[in-house]
Amino acid sequence: MAKLKNLEDYREEIEQCVKCGACRAHCPVFGAERREGRVARGKVALSKAVLDGEIGLEEKVLEDLSQCLLCGSCCAGCPNKVPTEEIVAAARRKIAEQRGLSSFGKGVAAILGRPKLMNTLAKTGGRFSALLFRKLPENSGLRLRFPAPYLESGRTLPPLTARPFRERCPERIEGKEGMPTVAFFTGCGINYMYPEIGEAFLRALKFLGVTVIIPKDQACCGLPAVSAGAGTVVEQLAEQNLAALTHEPVDYVLTACASCNAGIGKIYADLGGDYQQLAAKTRDIFVFLVEMGLPERLAELPKKGGVRTRVTYHDPCHLRTRGITKEPRAILKSLPQVEFVEMEDAATCCGLGGTYSVYHYENSKRIGAKKAGHIEESGAELVATDCPGCIMQLQDSINHAGGSQRAVHILELLNEALPKE
Amino acid sequence: MLEQRIIRNLQQTLGKEHVSTDKADLICYSYDATQQQFLPDVVIYPATAEEVALVMKLANAENIPVFPRGAGSGFTGGSLPTRGGIVLSTERMNRILEIDSENLVATVEPGVVTEQFQKAVEKLGLFYPPDPASLKFSTLGGNVAECAGGPRCVKYGVTKDFIIGLEVVTPTGDIITTGGPTMKGVVGYDLTKLICGSEGTLGIITRIVIKLLPLPEAKKTMLVLFDSIDGAARAVSTIIGHKIIPTTLEFMDGRTLDCVRQATDLEVPEGARAVLIIEVDGDREFLAKQVQKIQQLIQPLGVVETRTAETPEESEALWQIRRSVSASLRKVNPDKFNEDICVPRSKVPEMIRKVDAIAEKYQIPIVNFGHAGDGNIHVNVMIDKKVPGELERAHKAIEEVFRGALELGGTMSGEHGVGIAKAPYIPLEISEKAADYMKTIKKALDPNNILNPGKIFLD
Ligand SMILES: Cc1cc2nc3c(=O)[nH]c(=O)nc-3n(C[C@H](O)[C@H](O)[C@H](O)COP(=O)(O)OP(=O)(O)OC[C@H]3O[C@@H](n4cnc5c(N)ncnc54)[C@H](O)[C@@H]3O)c2cc1C
Ligand code: SF4
Ligand code: SF4
Question: pTM for the complete prediction?
Fold first, then answer.
């Protein structure tokens, strides 16, 4: 099994921090709670103090290191590109190793005890209840992200689907000759909560004539476990996904979830070897669609009249930090029924952040509230994005703010624009 | 270590959650942009002037040093708790209290971040010009205490030119106000100006009254590449000589351009050995004319290329060259000393030549860029601390740079202040008598020397 880097391996990056404080302008957690321990500079300083043995893993250190969305905003604004989110994730793994996972991911601890898959699911849909939730496979990203105690917190969550997406669709959908073959990495959000996004994904690729493989034995990408500090879980999931995604040759592995894209495209790249090759093949769906000339194809379709809906776009951190900002917008702008408007601070984190919103729901709400304000000010009716996690958080934030906007995946809008079969 | 009794007292004054002796917090408030570290005994987060006053009374009675801290982005160690004691953070005092559009005056608490204030007034068509490069994260309190400057100072002046009143907690725990919201005021000594730039040694600023301007209608940015630093410097004096004061006149020397070339894919032609970024602001029609005139004036001075931005995005792209400097310098060497000397405008080329000679003499790369319009040169001495002897050579080089600036009628610091970084060099610039005059003021106001002791002057 490939191993993730240790905190010790990050010493050089930690020492690149020149303490300028620029990250204070970019860290959403600091924006919600102005204390030095909450900002990247503080977290890096604490990580260094831990490495140097100046401070132990005491409560306050755990608390400060838990106060990070792993959104990477600080790194983008840092003159020396100090990868605070990676440093914090490594520090959390160290904490989990030494103190157990209880501080960060109670839900994850259960998996460590019983790593076997349990692929049974609730029969009914309906509201997302704690009961239903417990029936999710234990290593699903949702369980990793939202350990049971969290569900009593009053958050609005989308209903859980009765039949997961991967159970509904064939494992292979043949496309046209000469077109690429891709594997669809569905991720947990689409599989268990938003199967309609998965269906829209398949329709878009069918429209282009691409052959799609949807491996049944794929698992969670592991990003929620990264956030929880559950290093071994990440490594196990990566191994399982590597096997699932490589038993048939494919040109690309496509994702329609920003977190999955970062999980497979970045975390796996760090694992080296075969994982790196898998990572290199990973594409965000909209990058792929733009490469395949979808906007031009849409332009050729006969124009339908009708009112256009005002739509704004939220940049998921895990795409923004990987430089993917133009393609989702390009697709949105190419949709005939959409009037695109840019909102202020489209690129700041929505406040979900893996296990962050579990343990710091109040702060998470505060960060989300800012976002909801910007959506409102933009005058848009819909906020589209490219990540089921963000959709959930954005909708929760809009609901708390009493707004009427809906959060959707760009694929759902694309679906409407494609010709009916 | 402070006694438990004192900590309890602080907790009673401020509330338990606003007083921390957690090691993690002590570490987080032990540094600033100088990258030096000193652990305090306690970090406190007061919310009002009254709380600050109670803290100062206690500190005076118990002889505990107090170190005010804004964002900790200072380059000279002003907020470092060099003697342990209390770090007083203004992070909770971050409200914009009033923006008075009728009188063009605003009142803020010291912890407000500069850019947030700028954005708030600009929404109302008003303008707060001081723009230190740290404006996105530094606080107005820190800006006032350091009298921060920035590129726009050529035309508009520095922080203190916009501060017309303050509320200050004295080192002995009284609350006083200085100046006020009127554009004029000559009653008594000008304490506002005394506190501005006093680096947190004479009082703790708890409220700031700021003068505003109307927001200029538009601005235009030009990037001009020259074949020599002399050409760029002559361009500066020619423009100003023709009574045009641009909003900014930023320059970068040849070495800086070499760094930028290596580190980015921004196109910089080979023949270019200096750059000026010239920005003008004002009414739209008037701007086009001004740009034209500037271009005519400087064309004969060795201009290699001129790029003019037509849109805000294009302007941003031009500034990007300036912004990429900081990161690109690390390619030269991992560690740097960023000195901010200031010389009379016309002496900039001479100063650059001096610095080049010093770099040669000590075999240390030195990269210069800065605000040519006001002669403020950021002299970046690039070293690798791990290489034996390099640190010592750097210190010698820096002292020579200071001496060089003073010989040309300049100063050791145009905007970063003295703090602890430049305290040892003070006698080079300030006569013993003048220094005594300043120390007498400090002693009179802070008899127990508990407010930010050891800053500016060695004692
Ligand atoms: C990347 C970068 C770029 C910079 N660019 C510039 C620039 O262009 N121009 C420039 O002038 N500076 C610049 N600086 C230096 C620095 O940002 C300024 O000195 C700034 O004003 C410091 O503000 P701060 O809130 O961080 O204050 P701190 O660093 O926390 O404190 C600075 C000083 O102010 C005192 N102080 C803070 N708050 C108060 C208060 N309420 N009452 C009394 N004293 C107080 C402190 O004791 C200390 O002596 C830069 C720094 C960085 C890291
Ligand atoms: S911006 Fe980067 S270098 Fe500056 S303090 Fe933050 S992490 Fe450190
Ligand atoms: S990753 Fe995001 S939340 Fe974490 S320190 Fe950086 S900016 Fe802040």
Answer: 0.92
